[in-house]
Specification:
Structural class: alpha/beta
Helix content: 40-55%
Distance between the termini: 20 Å
Number of strands: 5
Shape: globular
Length: 109
Amino acid sequence: MRFLVDAQLPPALARWLAAQGHEAAHVGDLGMQAASDAVIWDHALASSSAIVTKDEDFAQRKVLADNGPVVVWVRLPNTRRRDLLAWFATVLPEILAAMARGETLIEVT
C-alpha cells in the first residue's frame, strides 16, 4: 500500500509504515508541509496514495467527493510518538483490511 502522512502526524509514522513494507511519505519530506488540503489531496490522488490524517477536513471532503484518494482518519488525541506508533501497529491490520474491502474513508479510534 502507498500512504501519504499529513502534517499533523509525525514523519516517524511514514518511516514506520515504510519499515512495515509499505510505500510511505510525509508531506514535510515532499516539501508540502504548508500545502493546502487541495494540493495534498491532488498529490495523493495522482500517486494513488491513501492520506493518513488527523484533519477532519479530509474526512468531510471524502464524504462529498465522488472520487479521490482513500482517507485514513486518525481519531486519536495528541500523544507521544512512541505511543502513536505502538497504537498504529495495532490498528494497521484493520486499516489494510478496510482498504482491501474497498472502503475509502477509514476512521480509526
